[in-house]
Amino acid sequence: MAEEYVYERERDMLDYFRNNLTDPESRSTTFTDTFTATEGQTQFVLTNTKVKNVRDTITVDGATLRKGTGYTVEYGEGNEKTTVTLTSGATLDDEVVIIYDFGPSMVEREFSRSDVKLPRVVIMFLTGSEEAAALNDDIADGTVSGKGSYFNASFRVEIRDKYANRARRLASQAFNLGQKMRRANLFRTNITNSSDMQNFDYDIEKDAYIWQFTLNVQWEIIFE
Questions:
Q1: pLDDT at residue 173 in the model
Q2: Which of 69, 77, 71 is nearest to 35 (CA)?
């Protein structure tokens, strides 16, 4: 089993929020790629660049796969293409259907520019610490016991919008998504908790209504 990294779990979390929060400004474009597989084919390169999130509805011959156990995603940077890799090779002539969004996104990992379109939902890393796993802990479904650990991380989720009610609604929806993330069966996600929601009202300098809350997660991280 290949070694895993914290940034991969962060990427899964980003996909989760992008897949479940609706952008009122409809900035991204949803697209469906349908492939006819060759025998044993595992890699499928998406048509468009600037892919922001692959939906968790990938099907092979009508069967829905789970991210992590059924497939992985390697997102392209800039004008690079994004590749979806199946854990097990497809059968000849299997229909592989992949739905994804490309273009600008409402949800990001940091504020990269001050002039981006509102609303914005930004998930910023705050702190992280490792917690050792016991030898008999069921890390990775028991397949690599003793070769992993738990990673406890805290994030600040900030919502900015020019409309007060819309900011409140998005903040409430994002808060609930944080609470439900573990139940959404995200890969190697053990614990999730949303807390400490705050309303900073209107910020003149940022020209936006601002809400924040803390998101705490625990992930399993596997070593080689």
A1: 97
A2: 71
State the greatest distance between any 2 C-alpha atoms of the chain, in Å, as a whole number.
59
Supply the Cα-derived Rg of the chain in whole angstroms: 19
Structure tokens at 208: 């936006």
Looking at residue 180, its pLDDT comes to 93
The answer to whether 170 and 120 are in contact (CB under 8 A) is no
Tokens of 118: 């509102």
* CA–CA distance, 72 with 8 (Å, rounded to integer): 10
Whether 21 contacts 170, CB under 8 Å: yes
Do the beta carbons of residue 188 and residue 68 sit within 8 Å? yes
Q: How far apart, in whole angstroms, are the C-alpha atoms of residue 76 and residue 73?
A: 9
pLDDT at 112: 61
Burial class (CB in 10 A: 0-12, 13-18, 19+), 154: middle
Q: For residue 176, give both structure tokens.
A: 């609930």
Sign, CA dihedral 142-147-152-158, equals negative
Phi and psi angles of residue 188, each rounded to the nearest 5 degrees, phi first:
55, 30
Can you tell me the distance from the alpha carbon of 12 to that of 186, in angstroms, rounded to the nearest whole number?
7
Q: How far is CA 147 from CA 4, 18, 21, 180, 223, in A?
A: 11, 31, 35, 28, 5
Beta bridge partners of 41: none
Mean pLDDT in order along the chain per 10 residues (224 residues): 83 95 95 98 97 96 94 94 97 98 92 75 94 66 63 96 96 96 88 95 92 96 77
Strand-pairing partners, residue 122, are 108, 158
